[in-house]
Amino acid sequence: MKCIFIRLAATLVLASSFHIFDCAARAQSKADEVAVRNIPRAFAAAWAHHDGQELAGIMSEDVDFVDVGGDWLRGRADFALYHSRLLSVRFREARITPLQTSVHFLRPDEAVLHWTWRIEGDRNFDMTPRKPRFGIFTMIAQKKGGEWLVTVAQNTNRIPPPIPDPEMEGITPGILYPKGQ
Fold first, then answer.
1. By three-state DSSP, how is residue 111 classified?
2. Pairing of strands 59-66, 147-157
3. 3 state SS of 176
């Protein structure tokens, strides 16, 4: 009986130590959090220059990126080519503005980043102007060689819901949009 209690106690100590190490593994520095929170600003700055190569500089070499139209871009080279084309024609006058940012670290070198945005000045395929719109990015950023780069991204247009939104009743969203959006 005493042997059973000793084994049980040893198992509990071992299991709790894994939990302690797991929690410690999720810790990160303030500098890392600032760097991840800066990704939307860096994205918007490169976008303002309408430079697909500069924009690709915040992406990892093996980035998986899904744009608002559902196009899945794989790798930094395709990301750069696509955005160079996009930013030189239909989006050459577009301005994207980050609104709110939320960061959740999964590990010291990996974080989930959500950020809402507003875009204006872009055009439809027929080159007619679009109305300003809102959306949200979900990104996974990893620290590689001391630098935080986006490895996965999903960009989504916001479709304004009815007010009040019956599906969201009693739910507090992670990030709020401006009223009416």
1. strand
2. parallel
3. coil
Which position has the token pair 């959740």?
A: 104
Asked if pLDDT for residue 99 goes beyond 90, the answer is: yes
CB burial string 138-175: b at 16+ within 10 A, e below: ebbbbbeeeebbbbbbbbeebeeeeeeeeeeeeeeeee
**Which residue has tokens 């070499």?**
61
Strand 72-74 vs strand 95-107: parallel, antiparallel, or unpaired? unpaired
Residue ranges per structural domain of the chain? 29-168
Domain 29-168 has CATH 3.40.30.10: no
What's this model's pTM, rounded to 2 decimal places? Answer: 0.80
pLDDT, tens digit, 9 for 90 and up, residues 14-41: 444 444 334 334 547 899 999 999 999 9
Which residue in this structure is represented by tokens 């960061």? 103
Residue that has been written with the tokens 């679009």 in this structure: 130
